[in-house]
Design goal:
single chain; mainly alpha; Arc Repressor Mutant, subunit A; two-stranded antiparallel ribbon; globular
Length: 243
């Protein structure tokens, strides 16, 4: 009689990593939040060693950083990092849109159509709009049917979660919806070049709004941050997660 198969031991370090990353992505650990091992032990019910492993991995990925006198915190991207994020996002998501136009199934295109339709019904509800927007972009990433591109986009999406949403601005919400409509039209025509251009135009528009937001809040941040002994940031504690 063969011995019963042994259940693999859980990877607590990976579990801690996934749970902290999810909390960052969903906004329950907003940018600037101090991350102490003691508090995470209570929050996650996991010992210090896997939590330490998780924080090290998250720091490598740029989601966690160290600040003087505070230790580990959820990262708060500065101006240059935002520029870099949008620059690479334009390249990667533009490519994903082109591939999606070429390779997406009819079912995937129908799902994109439904999401764009749903989006148009919640333009005055930032929380719902942000959730739909996240699902829409994630679906487009998957519809590209390229595992290597999908992996790169996954890490980019995690880092974009450190920025507050711009969709709370009604004008931006409506503009974004129109841009998604133009992208959808290109996808339905199976026009890869047009889909790539539509996505790039959408992301350049998002970047312009992001920079305008930065300039509007820069003076306020400069006045507030020195008193706390930190550098100006783009995502103060309590900001909701983006897209």
């Amino acid at each position: 009689m063969k011995p019963a198969a042994r259940t693999p031991a859980p990877d607590l370090g990976r579990d801690a990593y996934e749970r902290v990353k999810t909390a960052i992505r969903e906004g329950s650990l907003p940018p600037g939040t101090r991350l102490t091992e003691a508090e995470l032990v209570v929050r996650l019910g996991i010992s210090r060693t896997p939590i330490r492993q998780a924080l090290t991995r998250l720091e490598t990925e740029g989601l966690v950083s160290h600040e003087p006198r505070r230790g580990a915190v959820v990262s708060r991207p500065d101006h240059q990092q935002v520029i870099e994020l949008y620059s690479i996002r334009e390249v990667l998501e533009g490519t994903a849109a082109r591939f999606a136009a070429q390779h997406a199934s009819e079912a995937e295109l129908e799902a994109v159509t439904q999401l764009v339709t749903e989006e148009g019904k919640v333009l005055d509800h930032p929380g719902e709009l942000s959730a739909i927007n996240h699902r829409l972009h994630t679906l487009l990433h998957r519809a590209a049917h390229n595992r290597y591109l999908l992996r790169a986009l996954g890490q980019l999406t995690d880092n974009m979660a450190l920025l507050p949403t711009m969709l709370g601005d009604p004008a931006r919400a409506r503009q974004s919806h129109e841009e998604h409509g133009a992208l959808l039209a290109a996808l339905k025509r199976r026009d890869g070049s047009a889909a790539e251009l539509a996505m790039q135009a959408h992301l350049r528009s998002a970047q312009r709004h992001r920079i305008a937001w930065l300039l509007k809040h820069l003076d306020q941040d400069r006045k507030a941050e020195p008193a706390r002994g930190r550098n100006p940031s783009l995502a103060p504690p309590g900001a909701i997660r983006p897209r």
